[in-house]
Amino acid sequence: MNPLIKPAWPTAIYLLLVLVAAVSTACRRSSEYGKPEESVSIVDAHGKSVRIADSSRIVTVGGAVTEIAFALGAESRVVGVDTSSIYPEAATKLPKVGYQRQLSSEGVLALRPTLVLASADAGPPPAIEQLRSSGVAVLVVTADHNLDGARARIRSAARALRLEEQGRRLLESLEREVVEGRARTAASPDKPKVLFIYARGQGTVNVSGRGTAADEMMRLAGGTNAVTEFEGYRPLTAEAAVGAAPDVILVPEKGLESLGGMDAVLRLPGLSLTPAGENRRIVAMDDLLLLGFGPRTGRAVGELAALLHDRVPRGSPAAKPEGGGP
User: Which of 55, 148, 201, 308 could serve as a FRET partner for 220 with CA atoms 20 to 30 Å apart?
Assistant: First the structure.
């Protein structure tokens, strides 16, 4: 009904009809999100109790966080993402708020979010505090690089978005795929030694020690980390590479591309002298799939298990042809 047209019936009845129409519209909108909007309080990864009254406009920060929001079916509510949000493709077309560790609170607030859903890796801390001070609900979820971390992120996001049933189904799918993925290692008694290389061009080449996302994925997929002397990442040296004697070299696809392909990897210090280098056993996987610990973790375990135990036919996209690029 056009409010500019004077009604022919009494004003009270007219106002009642307008109210009914407004309530009906609100109900239709809330049904898009699975449940009517209602306030919920959640203790986040920083130990803060966060009250969420409106999740109709979300900015997601962190590749796995964005992926979870989309997997829960909340893509229509996401109005902005950070630059690490490279999956699914629809997320890459949304406005960007910068890299997750270097956020600008002004850039986030320009998108008028009612909720910022962020990984614990997000920062810097002053930017997060500015967002909280502005009155926007900021829910920080764990950044732990393991299965428990993936489960916790899904549960927190599902509750914040009032999509608990979708979250339950997503967790069931995750568990099923993890079991299926790990079953692929059962037929292989060996546990190949894997050297994980993180690279962003020739100037940034590091190897993974203990306690990283790569370390955990190697374990889940039935491999062993060839580097156990330290935690985190350190620069690659020829002496360390030869001493590690890996059977397989694992590289994220973007890192492989930045180095210039597999032949370029074998020219890195010491790698050609390792069993993996001599046998040209270099495998690559999508960065976020491999390291994100999001809803596709089970699929990642299965794919990596197949690569490490050499059950991927040569020439397949996952195997990456020898001597070529990604």
Answer: 201
| 120-146 tens-digit pLDDT | 999 999 999 999 999 999 999 999 999
Q: Tell me the C-alpha distance between 141 and 203, whole Å.
A: 32
Per-domain residue ranges of the chain: 40-180, 188-308
User: Looking at the domain 188-308, which fold is it?
Assistant: Rossmann fold (3.40.50)
Fold of 40-180: Rossmann fold (3.40.50)
Give the three-state DSSP class for 307. Answer: helix
8 A C-beta contact, residue 33 and residue 164: no
Please give the helix or strand (H or E) that residue 193 lies within, else none.
Answer: strand 193-199
The pair of structure tokens assigned to 35 is 């449940």
Are 40-180 and 188-308 the same fold in CATH?
A: yes
Could you tell me which of 322, 289, 252 has the C-alpha nearest to residue 64?
A: 289
Query: Using CA atoms, how far apart are residues 276 and 214, in angstroms rounded to an integer?
Result: 17
- How many angstroms separate the CA atoms of 295 and 99, rounded? 21
* Nearest by Cα to 251 from 290, 212, 280, 209: 290
| Of the candidates 134, 19, 120, the residue with the CA atom closest to the CA atom of residue 62 | 120
What is the number of other CB atoms lying within 10 angstroms of the CB of residue 272? 16
Q: Are 94 and 81 in contact (CB under 8 A)?
A: yes
Integer Cα distance of 173 and 179 in angstroms = 10
